[in-house]
Amino acid sequence: MRIVAGWLQRDCASDPQLRQVPTKNFNQRPQHEISLVVLHGISLPPGKFGGPYVDQLFTLSLDPKVDPYFEGIYKQELSTHLFINRHGVITQYVSFLDRAWHAGRSSYQGQKECNDFGIGIELEGTDDQPYTDEQYQVLRELLPVLQEAYPDIGERVASHSEVAPGRKTDPGPFFSYQEIGLRLV
């Protein structure tokens, strides 16, 4: 994998499967260097995997009639840079050069508004189930690509719960930082 103009590209057939589903839910980054990766967990409806609902959420096309849970979220303007499903397929919604709307009110090591300087990666999962080997494998391949393209990231990989404590709990206690070679600080 490599990054061209803010978008992931596959270099060879052995790279993870990659989809691009651009959304309008983003804006320009302020003058901040990209220096953080924020890991999230998502499933729609909660606890269910697969289906088109994550794409629909991030592209403002979620039908509130499909599930009662969707009635409370279908109008929310949300996005992320990347989504990794249970099979390890990557979907990119927003260029890394732009600000995705994933972390909300947040701070990391005293720096506020993580969306300004962070890359959001949503993992298909829940707080109460393990993530898949395929997801960990993709993260092990992806993180060095991001760190090379954006050296200020270094080891700055945080959970959504860490940047928005008390408000968010994802990716949850079943996510293993050891599986991707990192410790949560």
TrEMBL record:
<keyword id="KW-0961">Cell wall biogenesis/degradation</keyword>
<dbReference type="GO" id="GO:0009254">
    <property type="term" value="P:peptidoglycan turnover"/>
</dbReference>
<dbReference type="GO" id="GO:0071555">
    <property type="term" value="P:cell wall organization"/>
</dbReference>
<feature type="domain" description="N-acetylmuramoyl-L-alanine amidase">
    <location>
        <begin position="23"/>
        <end position="172"/>
    </location>
</feature>
<dbReference type="InterPro" id="IPR002502">
    <property type="entry name" value="Amidase_domain"/>
</dbReference>
<dbReference type="GO" id="GO:0008745">
    <property type="term" value="F:N-acetylmuramoyl-L-alanine amidase activity"/>
</dbReference>
<keyword id="KW-0479">Metal-binding</keyword>
<dbReference type="GO" id="GO:0005737">
    <property type="term" value="C:cytoplasm"/>
</dbReference>
<keyword id="KW-0862">Zinc</keyword>
<dbReference type="GO" id="GO:0009253">
    <property type="term" value="P:peptidoglycan catabolic process"/>
</dbReference>
<protein>
    <recommendedName>
        <fullName>1,6-anhydro-N-acetylmuramyl-L-alanine amidase AmpD</fullName>
        <ecNumber>3.5.1.28</ecNumber>
    </recommendedName>
</protein>
<comment type="similarity">
    <text>Belongs to the N-acetylmuramoyl-L-alanine amidase 2 family.</text>
</comment>
<dbReference type="GO" id="GO:0046872">
    <property type="term" value="F:metal ion binding"/>
</dbReference>
<dbReference type="InterPro" id="IPR036505">
    <property type="entry name" value="Amidase/PGRP_sf"/>
</dbReference>
<keyword id="KW-0963">Cytoplasm</keyword>
<dbReference type="InterPro" id="IPR051206">
    <property type="entry name" value="NAMLAA_amidase_2"/>
</dbReference>
<dbReference type="Pfam" id="PF01510">
    <property type="entry name" value="Amidase_2"/>
</dbReference>
<keyword id="KW-0378">Hydrolase</keyword>
